[in-house]
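If you are new to this repository, start here. Below is one unmodified record pulled from the training split, so you can see the exact layout before writing a loader.
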Amino acid sequence: MNETGQKMVLTTFMLPAGYHKDSWRKQGSRVEELPGPDFVRDLTLKAEEAKLHAVFFGDMANANAVLEGDIKMNGFYEPVTTLSSLAAVTKDIGLIGTISTSFESPYTVARLIAGVDHMSKGRAGWNVVTSGSGFQNYGVETTPSPAERYARATEFVSVVQQLWDSWADDAVIVDRKNGAYTDNSRIRKINHRGEYFNIEGPMPGPRSPQGRPVIVQAGSSAQGVELGSSIADGIYTAQPRKEPSVEFYAKMKDLIRSKGRNPDHTKILPGIVPILGSTVKEAEELSEELKSYVHLEHGRAQLGRSVELDLTELDFDERIPSSMFVDKPHLGSRYLLYKYKAVDQGLTLREMIIDAARSTGHQSVVGTPEMVADVMIDWFEAGACDGFNLNAPYNPGGFDQMCTMLVPLLQERGYFRDKYEGTTLRENLGLPIPPA
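And here is the target side for that same chain:
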């Protein structure tokens, strides 16, 4: 049992087609319903019943993955419209959506996320990303460098936060007698003049229930770490091994502290893919079944693009020669993970494709709920994380297993709550409302 009383933060990456690549081929996947509302609503309600902190939606600004035969990561569910619809059918669970800083205006994004926060009564979150593709869909022919994208993102988030703070909490007075809805002295223009944006402000409406909606960020590159430590309430990270995760956790907390921020108010959440069975044999059989659905040629092409290597001449049972891996800082931390698996672990091309299909750089555990819970608790107690982002390997069955087999074990052992503590996402994460 948990003797410290500290509880995990648990969110889930909402990928209706399943986190394990090509798992939509499994019978009963409900893939025919994408991108309709019923399936994603049912999964979200299941997550809320399990008392998860939030559902998290990624996004894609192009159709490249689908055209390459992969519907795992896609833009089927535009986050803001999807979260708005889910706000109407849920009561407690947080609703986190991705919007890239590379394409939109900070004023638009500030309004959109604040709008979801109002519609959900304080349960909205924004996953801040920069984009490495999709620029041609926004009239930009050449993809900017990572340094430029992150410089824009840093200013972008600052402007959004200023806009969220442009109304004081007490700006709305509703003085019927004197005909004053607002105290205009409590509303201010931000008059931002920067390298990328010139924005007057203020927001067109009152501050949202959380003051500032929760901000999460994913990215373990040097630029990503710098941005996340500066602005994030939660950080998603790919950490397949415990010891490097402990090091990353300590590094991030120190960096957050060095910037005058409270490190306890930024939750570090590595991803985990639990492939569950009531017995080890059952879990292993499920793992083998999911592997059987992976399209190897699509996987070869996708892996080659991810690491910028020509793998067309390699046999599936050959290893990628270590000489092919050279320094490519622009590819970020996942490139180093792929290099580690190919060079240090000696995985064959086939094994690399299967590994990428199953976990995309995250930790994957095959076993009983008790075994997976043991791993999660071990990481949590070792200071490797504040919780996890749960990735269901397939849907709806794998999602149901996580919520009805794994989470209840964590609750029984005292590592996860059995009821929501508050009414907003900030309250449930134990985060204060930032003053305007």
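Two things worth knowing about this chain: The chain has a mean pLDDT of 95. The two ends are 41 Å apart (CA to CA).
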